[in-house]
Amino acid sequence: MSAHGPMPRSAWLFPALAVLLFLIVTATGYGFTVSVGGFVFAVVLLVILFGTVFAAVHHSEVIAERIGEPYGTLLLTLAVTIIEVALITTIMLGDKPAPELARDTVFAVVMIVCNGLVGLCVLIGGLRYREQGFQVSGANVYLSVLFVLATMTLIMPNYTLTTPGPVFSALQLGFVDLVTIVLYGVFLYTQMVLHRDYFVHESEGGEGGAGHLSANMLVLSIVLLLISLGAVVLLAKKFSVVVDAVAVMIGAPPAFAGLVVALLILMPEGVSAIAAARKNDLQKSINLALGSSLATIGLTIPAVGIATYALDQPLVLGLNPQNTALLFLTFLLSMLTFGTGRTNVLFGLVHMVVFAVYVFMVFVP
């Protein structure tokens, strides 16, 4: 999507429909049931919810073109993360507690982004342009912070002694939340102030689209972005009920809910990353992909940790050995892919194979 040209109808229609649906459901007190009517409601809900998420991302991109890189991709990432936190917290603290959902969703985001999305972007770019370039210094910053945060939050809980099992004690969780927020904050300062040039490839020239967006359009996009995010948060509860019902119907494993949430929140951002790769702007694809992984861990884990602590709910974070092996494989592969500043088709294909293994193991562990 672009800031140029008239605003597409879907950019304001879906947020309006989302707010209208929430008002109708609240006024009527409708509760989802497994029936023909429930199936129709689920389809309508998912269509409106997906449309509203895409609308939120569109308005983020409109604003992003005004403020330039890397602020634009950062804004897009933060918008998606707000949606993610709302969905995870609502489902975790719903009628059917899901203490593993935050872990499953964060791990799913890392696998989808670092293998599925990165692999697809590199593969598409390689097929069209043979090789694509990017800033190695920026990729290294992303990966160094991502590896540390992922290890602290998804692996360390399995090896702590204060509490048994894949959980942190309250004090440990508070410390990890604090360190995570501090480290992510320093990363943002590095990205936006200290080394902004690390995240803008030479071919982009570091320029945004400031001269092409009117002030009225900017204000309208900001308002509609806030409405879109609010509507997704309001509909998150109903979405959680539908996900639980579908999981029971198809006999899906517990990790299925985390995969669905991750796919929902990453789909519009993924479309933006793929479009950038098709335009030979792999740097933007990397900013979106790796930035979303960092934001997921750096913001979601502390937010969910605070919510579960305040409500005295359990929070399971440690991965099982199988997923731990996949995470380390992703780390190693990412270092090789982003180590030279040039990518090709083979790198993309290898990432997609690892992603296929992850999806298969969700259903056949």
From TrEMBL:
Q: Which UniProt keywords apply?
A: Membrane, Transmembrane, Transmembrane helix
Q: What GO terms are given for molecular function?
A: potassium:proton antiporter activity; sodium:proton antiporter activity
One Pfam family recorded for the sequence: Na_Ca_ex
InterPro entries found in the cross-reference section: Alkaline_pH_Ca-Antiporter (IPR052946), NaCa_Exmemb (IPR004837)
What membrane topology is annotated for this entry? Multi-pass membrane protein
Principal localization reads membrane
Cellular component GO terms, alphabetical:
plasma membrane
Q: Which residues form the Sodium/calcium exchanger membrane region domain?
A: 39-192, 221-363
Determine the domain of life of the protein's source: Bacteria
Compartments, as annotated in UniProt: Membrane
From the UniProt annotation, give the residues forming the signal peptide: none
**Segments passing through the bilayer:** 12-32, 38-59, 71-94, 106-127, 139-159, 171-194, 215-236, 242-267, 288-311, 323-339, 346-364
Q: What is this protein called?
A: Ionic transporter y4hA
Q: Which organism is it from?
A: Bradyrhizobium arachidis
The organism's taxonomy opens as: Bacteria, Pseudomonadati, Pseudomonadota, Alphaproteobacteria, Hyphomicrobiales
